[in-house]
Amino acid sequence: MGQTENVEKAPKTSWFTGLKAEFAKIVWPEKKSVVRQTIAVIAVSVVTGLIIALLDWVIQYGVNFLVGLNF
Length: 71
Description:
single chain; mainly alpha; 2 helices
């Protein structure tokens, strides 16, 4: 069996202090940038949804046309 070492854990206060220090290093984007990016994501999502809906309609029409053929 493997041997386990008796390692002391860091106290919780140092963990929270480290977390706070790392959080302070974050560079948050400006509100204007976030708004523009959000609008871009929504616009691309709507356009993609419309393209998928159009393709679905065309494929459905084609399948219904082929099923309706009488040989």
